[in-house]
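Checklist before submission:
- one chain only
- standard amino acids only
- sequence pasted in full

Submission:
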Amino acid sequence: MAIAVSEAYWWQSTIMLEIRRLRDDPDRRVRVSSHQIDARQLVFALRQLITAATLMEDVAAECGAARVVTGMAGAIQRFKDALPGVKDMRDGLMHFENWSRGTGRGPQAKRARAKELREIARDYWLFAFDREADTLSMGPYGFSGAAAEQAARDLYGMIYEAGRVLDTPAGP
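Returned file contents:
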């Protein structure tokens, strides 16, 4: 449980840092857009926060804390609803070698029978951060920085609260 809270803290802090960087002027120390780098890291950090939440949910289940499990499941679902496609975006960035050719195993696989691979790659590959609109997108997926910020705060709050409840001497 302590690991879930600790990792959630670090990933939530990473999310907040990345969002602030995205709102600042680009870092001129790199030749490419630092915003595009930070946007990619934000997607990975958001996915890792879900991993920490899932760990807390599993620990609560092992402790027999049904209310905590239900609370964590609801918090995870609200996070995913606020950031539609964040898992697929992370998968696309992580497995770019497949997604860039239209051979990804996720949503691309469902379309592989109906379309040519180049069409699938075109529809799913392009990753972008739009500073003016405060949006991150990849193919059909996208969300705003503001939504990511609020969703991360809310999910971290639930992870922390679940840890506190499980750590009380009276038990869950």
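Reviewer check: Residues 2-167 form one domain.
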